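Mods, move this if it's the wrong board.
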Amino acid sequence: MSASFHVKQHHHHSDKKQQHESISHHSSRSSFSQLSYAAHKRIQHSTIGEQQSFVESEKRSEFIPSQLLPPRVKKYLAMDPDTNDVIGYIVPVFRTSHDRPGRSEFQEEGVGFVRSHVSTVSVVCFVRNLFSLETSSMETITVEKKSRKRHIRESADRLELSKKVEERAEFRKKQNSDNLTHPPEFIVRPRGQTVWEGKTVKLHCTVSGWPKPRIAWYKNNVVIDEKAHPDKYTAESNYNMHSLEIKSCDFLDTAQYRVSALNIKGESSSVATVVIKRFQEGQKVGTVDAKPHGFCSEHGVTFETAIIDSFEVAFGREGETLSLGCTVIVYPTVKRYQPDVLWYRDGKALAESKWVHTHWSGEKATLTLVHLNKEDEGLYTLRVNTKSGFQSYSAYVFVRDEEVELEGVPVAPLDVCCHDSNKDYVVVTWKQPAVEGSSSILGYFIDRCEVGHHHWAQCNDTPVKYARFPVTGLIEGRSYTFRVRAINRAGVSRPSRASDPVTAIDPHDRARHRAGPSAPFTGMIKFTEEDATVGVVPGEPTDLVVTEATKNYVVLAWSPPAQRGHEGVVYLVEKCVAGSECWQRANTGMPVKSPRFALFDLAEGKSYSFRVRCCNSAGMSEASSATGDITVGDMLDLPAAPGPAVATRNTDTSVVVSWGASKDVKHLVGYYINYTVAGSDVWTPANNKPVKGTRFVCHGLNTGESCVFRVKAVNAAGYSHSSLESEAVVVKAGIAIPGVPSGVHLMEAARDYMVLAWREPAVTGGADIRGYFVDYRTIKGGVGGQWHELNPKAVTCTSYKAENLKENLFYQFQVRAINMAGVSEASLPSAALECKEWTIAKPGAPHDLHVLEVRDSSLVLLWEPPTFEGRTPVYGFYVDIKEAVAGEDWKGVHEKATKLKYMKVNGLIAGRSYVFRVRAQNLAGVGKTSAVLGPVLALTMPGTHEIILDVDDDGVISMIFECSVSRWSQGGSDSVTDTSDFYTMVTEGDRSRAIFNAPSLEDLGIFSCEVTNTVGISASYTLTEAGLKRLLDISHEHKFPIIPFKTQMAMELLEKGRVRFWTQVEKFTAGCHVDYVFNDAIVENGEKYQMNFDKNSGIIEMFMDSLAVTDEGTFTFNLVDGKAKGSTSLVLIGEEFRELQKKSEFEHAEWIRRQGPHFVDYLGFQVTPECNVLLKATIGNIRPETEIRWYKDGLEIEEDDADYKKIEMKDEVLIFNIGKLSKKDAGVYEVKLKDARGKDKSMFNLTEAGYQTVLNELFRVIANSSTEISVKSTEHGIVLYSLITYHMEDLQVGWLHKEAKIAHSDRVQCGVTGEQLWLKVNEPTEKDKGKYTVNICDGKDGVKRFCDLSGQAWEEAFVEFQRLKAAAIAERNRARVVGGLPDVVTIQEGKSLNLTGNVWGDPAPEVTWMKNDRELVSDERYALKFEHGKFASITIAAVTTTDSGKYALLVKNKYGTEAGEFTVSVYIPEEEKKE
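Not the wrong board. Structure tokens:
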């Protein structure tokens, strides 16, 4: 039995000892937003782990054992693990176990907490249900505080913990903002009401949704603006509860009221009917004025909406950005009022996202689709809602696949969605692509990515064929996105667009997040005592069913047990092969927390039964009831093939395709439509997103092509077979009823008849106008009578003579057009026309004005003469023109009247519009103006063609115009038909031909061709006498053709001296025949002549083994190809024949020579880059036994000769390496080859002319190896030099200065040093500046190298010369010790030392003697002398040991200093003896 109670707290103050009682409550909407589950486990652990509890008083230091407390209190005390103090009381509260009505989702145990903060005590509650029913009694527990300081510290800790938990919850919510979003859902719907007049009606509803939905109220589908009428309507929205109050209801408030909830995930609405009753039937409460349709009482106006500049059918490709836009006009304009502009795709509202951007500027509505994907294909609708209703416009958007990276792979799947998500499980579905690639799709790979990461992990190892896959192993609380890839034999497709994020979370928790608070806050927290179910073994799962079964997997679903205890449960799935009793665990490596599980790796075709257990820490439940035997295989069959496809014409670029729906198909995804051009095997998808209906408009086709269509259905199991192909249909506009004729007017009137005329319809409906019907009625007193038919048989022209009328009566006329599709609506009635005879002298108005050949700068205007000519015949016409803008005046196109009934108007400006009129003239003057024609836009339409004159292979002359249905005319109006003896009309596909039967001068003039059923699409051609003559010449060539030759007959010599006569024909047929003629006699294929005609290349050949004297003459090839003939000849006589005969004989002898060892290339020479001379010959057909002998001047070079080492052979190339050429190498060299098959020899004369030739080549190599002239400065002057590879005495070298030869002198010298050619200029001056040239002989004109020694080059060289010169002078004249001083002097003590050093310097140097780096001065001990400026001496009379040391003679002048160093060693004889 449970008890409910209030928690009271008592506070004691130490100074006043006053007792206060207070209660403080804090509640939470979500238990997880206040305290984490880990915190609860820590508190619970500390409570269970404590063996004894104490309560300490503020003033007393004694402890109260917890055994003294009541048993129920002891059970639920929460203890501080550090101080063993009582810190709170654990109150278990249970949530109701009743499921929501209409909910089938699994509701699992949830754990939450409610915290109640009092000024002195904290009560922590382990909540199972916040809204359990209250039961019996109440208990009160009072706990005294320990100390104020401790209480403040604990309160601060609790506040800090609460703040951290709330911040973490907010962070997680922002991090996974997408996982809680869901469309609006009505929890409580508004109810209909019936009330009396004058009462107030209030409609209530409760809506859940995230983000928070936007609420709008409608009355009879018109938005209610409560701000405009606050005295009538009041709308409120508080805590997801919304209401609409209608005050002082009257009869006009009877209506259907609709509430609409909209957010980014979708829209939902609910309708309630309000009926207002009167107290007495029939009593009127005021005057009720009739309101026009769409009248808006809120603003007192009727809004009219127009959508203009609308977008057409659009085509995009994946990855591109596409924008759709319309101009919206709302009239009248109300200040601060803007309509609601909504965009839909396939009937579903679009919301702002990273893929979809909408913009409304006040006039222009724009939808931008970023990074197109196939999911974006569909019917797009712009809907503009106003207070008076709505206006919409729709067009289809097609998205083509992105180009595949590998040929033959499938394209990406589409529409990846997630369903039935749970704690660790989600079902991913997708739609198959329209294009499977070069082979059928083998299956699909599913990838997943955790939100916030960029790594995609593959979920399945083997491809799944089914377009639905359960993904397991998710981590609870984390969000994921999924994508799918298709695979066939050619490879793997690109991945699909990623799905929306989905969170692995318990469905109950998701529903609780969506629903928000379940009840308003009452200001008091009530607790219910826990039932004794802690540690209860859970019951068995129920309702176990197989929800999906395919070849790859089986999905099980069940309901959780009703009894589960506090903690969550996990499920154990078991399987058993049919016919056995052996149950096996199916999820050994993966704990199952969701009441869903997918089993893989089952044997296809086998039958299994399944059961489920659940367990918690208390134990394992009994097994659920087993399923029946389930055979592993696809439960969903492939759809049946749709019915035959039927294609019908629609527009010039679209075709309507309809088909029969697939029969007995389950879970149909849609249909794919493919088409191909008739005669081709290439099928192209018409849609990349499946369509549900059985009718589809295929856009983007090419006008005039003949297309065939087929359809296939698709569901999750795959594709159906294609339907039967449709019949071929030509892509062009369908035939419809023509438009209405216009401009009915009077052309002529008499006593009993009137002649009427009118303009043909602007729209012919895609077919020829077959005629017109004219109706009339009489007008009396301004009132018209009944309409009557004038002509039971349609008239084919645009005029009609209405006869048997009554004079002086008024009539009205109307006209209808007819084509093969039917009769049009009647035209507007003409004005009331009086039937009386015209007596005017001037002519009437011309009629039937129309234009042809509209171009950027010209057009052709045609008209018919007036029916009423006046008193005299019409002899001319005037054409007037003006621009179609206000304020323009009429201008004459020409000054003199034209007798023709047409005129080409030139001088128009492209892009401008013009209007035209025509006036007729007779002797009485100019008559009435015709009806104004126009405006006509001067612009060449895209795809405009011109008339082409053609002469076919048979010589037939014709005019061709690119169109399918046309009307030809000559001279402006004379029709050209098949009935004429001069022309034949032929239509071939999309080409119309007018054939000249017998071209002559009578055919000269203007020919026009007008495409029927179009607005003036036409062209003309003027045939002149010169043009006709040229066409007749071409026709004659075609009638009597000549076979063209690419090349005329030619001759060439072949191996063995054979002669080949040949030619090549440019154009011929398989029946072409050749006659081979020699001197007017046909020769046949035989021993002497061999013939060949290669019809693949057109080459005609005739071969002769040799030429004899009798073969002199003319050779001819005569060709006959049907009626075409051709001939080509070659004359071989006289000297030309004899020269050819000699060449043939020589080639024959050469062939015989090449049968044995022979020279391919005879002996010649080569100079290498190193200037070595080689004699080379290439030989062929050599065998090991072939003898090769070299000779010089007739003497064989033997093996012991020095020259024999110069001979070598590499790759059948004989080489004699002479080396550096000299005169001793001159001579005649010869090589002989010989073996049993034959012999050959080759000779090279290296004397006189031959020697000079080799020498010239050597000079050429040397000259070309020379470098550019370089400049070097020396102490004597400037040196110019060039380096060469090799120099020999015979090489001629000349130097030039300023193009003049340099003469050799003492100051200017030239010469050769090694491989350096140099020119020395000693003591250069300014005269030596300029351009220097060295000319090196190369056997011809010489090779020249240049150097410009001027400017900076001269300055640098001259400065360097001066520097080096000064340095040389300094080096010559500097002071230095020339000699005379030893390195070491050893002398006995007491001896005299005299040393003299020779010195040099100019000027004479200063001399200083140094000892141990100290200068010596001439005194009694040291005698220092310097004589004649050349000799410096030092004398020491009697040396002692102190004189030992390092001495130096230091000489110095202005050019430098030098020291001559030596060492003096003084020894004592006695010491030497001792040693």
